[in-house]
Design goal:
Blueprint lengths: L1 H11 L18 H20 L23
Length: about 70
């Protein structure tokens, strides 16, 4: 557990309070991130089915273009 904590501290620049630095950028989407996201969704759905619940997955709304604003079509 200590080794994992040190790894995260080194890799992601996470401080004592588990807060990442504001200068860190998580804009990169790589193959590992996509596989982890897919695994997390599959695990959530599987866990929901195991307790006989209906999983509902919702994505966050986003603007189609950087120039658009919420009040502008």
């Amino acid at each position: 557990m200590r080794l994992r904590g040190k790894y995260y501290e080194w890799k992601y620049n996470i401080g004592v309070e588990d807060a990442a630095s504001v200068t860190d950028s998580y804009e990169e989407i790589n193959e590992l991130a996509i596989r982890q996201y897919k695994l997390s969704l599959e695990m959530f759905v599987d866990l929901a089915h195991n307790i006989q619940a209906v999983p509902i997955i919702v994505t966050q709304a986003r603007l189609a273009d950087e120039k658009n604003t919420p009040g502008r079509n």
